[in-house]
Amino acid sequence: MRDAEKRNPKEICLKKTCLQAVRKHFAAVGTEAVLDLPAPLIQDLLPHLTVCQLDELQPALNLKGISTYSGWAGILNDMSGSVDHVIHLPTEEEAKHEVMRILFPVVFYGFRNPFVNRNITNLNTPSFLWAAAKCIRHFLLTTSLHERFKSLTAEQRPLLDLLEKRIRSVGVSQSVDLSKKKTQIVLYVLHRLLDHGVAKELIVHVQCPIMLAWLLHGRGSQYVNCKLKNLMNSKNTSSADRSSNSSGLHTETLDDQDDEVPPCKRSKLDSVCVEGKESGKTNMIVDPQVLCGTFSPCGSPAADVCPWGKIERLEIRQCGSDSLIVLNSALPTFFCLRSLTLHSLSTFSVSDVLGLAGALKQLSASCRSSLTDLSVSVLPNTELMDVLLDTSHGVTSLHVEVQTVLWGPRFTLRHPRTAESQISELPLEKLTFKVAQVQTDVNVVTSVLRRCPHLASLHVAGMRLPTGSSQRQLLTTLSESNHCLRSLTLEDLNLSDCLPEILNLVRDCKLEELQFKDCRLLEKCSEKRESLQQLVAALKTAPSLHTLSMAQNRLAKNVCVLAELFSGSSPSSVTQLDISSNFIQPAELLEFSTALRTHCPPHRLTLDLRKNPGDRDPDTWNTALRRLRPLCVLLVEGWKSTDTMADHISNM
Predict the structure, then answer these.
(1) For the chain, N or C: smaller number of CB within 10 Å?
(2) The whole model's pTM is what?
(3) Which of 539, 540, 543 is nearest to 515 (CA)?
């Protein structure tokens, strides 16, 4: 509240009581009466309103030129349980969508947390779920909570209809046992979202090959599993069932095989069975069209054939060998797939990666392939990155993570590269390469970079070189071969002897984003301040640069040099500056704030100060923050010096 410190405490208490009363009796007060309040009073009221009240008022308030951002930000802070929670969401719509994204699954599935417990009467309502469903774009299915899905076929059927129109991404968080009848309701909801709705992205969080096979069937790939085909033609399936099961997703009991393998271990489609009530062979329908007819509301018009959705983005977060077998069979004709992300909890085996590469090669051989984004982690060695690139000719964005396998056979290319393959141009525009191994051959990376003249974004993290080697080769290659580079992130690399190459790179490439995170930039510089001034002078010559990160580089007392970015007649165009985790003391931040006020940035600066020991001298730190706020959007949070020191020491 404005000038709150000058007001009578009783006056403040009375005003707060009145604002809380408006929240409690909002329906009786009415929206018109709230909208008629003076704008300053409305701003004071916003942090007291519920989620649904804010959602209801926002359109009318926006027409009056009043933003509800403070209300949504207040809810986010309340949910985090900390007034120091950093909210880096520039607009009220982004803040609102973040609130709805967090709260919808909690309320829908009946989970509880302190915020929900405090606001249960306002959240556990159809109106909240409806309001949230209009905002969210991702729906995560917690498949064990079948009763929640039943409500979507009964009293909350309109909510399912709304989700079909809004949800762009569907996630499956738990394994699904297709042999259980209660699973049918989950399959029906998935069918409605993926086939009748607009969802094009699928995220599978679990290792469940049979569920993956069901999800991929008919939704882009032309492949039909032979075991599935056998089930379609099984003599135990009635002809009537066959005619209705046009998609072929129909399973039945195979009681002579059912007890041989525990259900949780099965990865093949013919392992889906149910125990018959009388004959021992009871059909278990998993066909989407039959399910649709079963669970659709009475009286609704029945379509002759349900539509099939198209999965354009697929992410498998626990991808094991069994899941890869299912995926590799589907990939060669998965022409609508644009993005594929695979992550294994352990390192992929070489044979797994080569099998994937073979399937990708078949897909890329077709002119109908749409795959442009590929992410695979964790590879057992860096050489396999080359293999994936050479078998995925249309990929323009590649993300790979590598972790050394200390046991088992080492992988080597069976056939040496021809001169043509070594120099053939790649269409790659974005590359992320994260590695966790004792030593990396920098030539593996630089050879790829030289083949990517159109590369616009590069992120390299954790690359350790043999003793006596330097990252100078990497930086020189970028300067010479990648003039289209616009975004560069170097993380956890030793660049302590690379200042000349960094200066050349800044001058040679038209960078828009440059991030040095934990790169030990000044470690070997005898004159750290002068070296940083050289870097600042070079950065000022990059007119397109708008984002700069110097996080975790032990800047400490030298941080004030960065204020010189905005000095002189040609100040830097940087609008986002990250100096977090630099062990900046309060007195040093105060000096920086004074310098920044002298060299005022031409644009409002977003300044990240997190993980610096501000509590060493809170008064000085807060004075520095007050000086910076007129010039900057500050990202700060409470931090204990003991934690900061531990973090600082761990990186020394």
Answers:
(1) C
(2) 0.86
(3) 539
